[in-house]
Amino acid sequence: MTAYWCELAWLGGSGVEAGVLIECAGGRIARIASGAQEGAAERLPGLTVPGFANAHSHAFQRALRGRTQAPSGGSFWTWREQMYALASSLDPDRSYALARATFAEMALAGITLVGEFDYVHHSRAVISAAADAGIRMTLIDACYLHGGLDRFHDADADAWAARVASLEPLPPHVRLGAAIHSVRAVDPESAAVVAAFAASLELPLHAHVSEQPAENEECLSRHGATPLAVLAEAGALSERFTAVHATYFSDEDARLLAASGAYCCLCPTTERDLADGIGVPSGRLTLGSDSQAVIDMFEEARAVELDERLRTGVRGVYAGADLLRAATLNGYQSLGWPEGGRLEEGALADFVAVRFDGVRLAGTRPEDAVDAVVFAAGAGDVDTVVAGGATIVRGGRHLYVDVAAELEAAIP
Length: 412
Ligand SMILES: [Zn+2]
Prior knowledge:
Blueprint: E1 2-9, E2 17-25, E3 28-33, E4 42-50, E5 52-57, H1 76-88, H2 92-108, E6 111-118, H3 123-133, E7 136-143, H4 157-165, E8 174-180, H5 188-201, E9 205-209, H6 213-223, H7 227-233, E10 241-245, H8 251-260, E11 263-266, H9 268-273, E12 284-287, H10 297-312, H11 320-334, E13 351-354, H12 369-376, E14 382-387, E15 390-394, E16 397-398, H13 403-410
Parallel strand pairs: 1-4, 5-6, 6-7, 7-8, 8-9, 9-10, 10-11, 11-12
Antiparallel strand pairs: 1-2, 2-3, 4-13, 13-14, 14-15, 15-16
Helix pairs in contact: 2-3, 2-13, 4-5, 10-11, 10-12, 11-12
The structure holds zinc ion.
């Protein structure tokens, strides 16, 4: 039994509780009580929240950070050429080193579960990398059949399914997910095969949807329907589905997604970096760091509300607690870990303490703690990270990865 005592903790409502004792056993929260004495428990400063779920990641793209920002940087499509050049230079050893360092950077930022949307298919490398960084992963293996780089391709959707099935059994820190890369890369008949496979195993199913106007235009001219409508026709939509981006959603797309009980994963720091546009939050909201332009779930969370303010001229569409829920509970559920993402008895013992003694959050009152964290914290304010009941980050330092040195070594 390990015990942690939180100065303040967010238990899922609009406010916070003081003096919360969390006892962990077998990787789960065995007992949780407010108004408790500190005693011999490990002290967690500031506000403790559930561990963050990064619901959409391509770990290897961390190597592009800062390298695609020149004023002549072009468009999403020219960025994609740079990304493909990087992807084609990867071998499993390099994928492992880059993913391990990137996942460790995520751990420092309070991320305890990553949804790795994988079309490079160095599966064993990223599985080991997540274990060695101390975090959980849903390996979202992407079917990619047309366009892009040949090396991403499976021969057809059945070959994809056979390859994915061969990944089992997986170690306990990993669960399987499926992905239709996009309607650009997977035809409707093949998308139906992927959707049926995911349904047969009750896997999370993710897809990039309506990220770019050109994607919508091409889909409309080829299939006479929007990307989401094509995916719906292929049987992809359900409460296990996540539409990533949803930037150029029609009103009907937004209605269709919400009615299916699916999730919408916004990746605002990537979408603004690539000049994609502002995503349309519809369905149950989750968040992802996607291209790793930055790795900071506070920034992703507040961007949803702040972008809505710019678009609508109205403040307060999303409350701080709604955005925290998107970054935690919704993300865990969308990635196939419904027993995580919340601080309650029986839940996975994954949580994060955000310190209030740094310059960004000094002076925060307990009654404002949730809003202060969501609207002003940075990844560098994460003090302690516990995953599966074990501390992996303490005092803002990863306990067994020298993160900056490993990033330096992994990025040529
Ligand atoms: Zn993506």
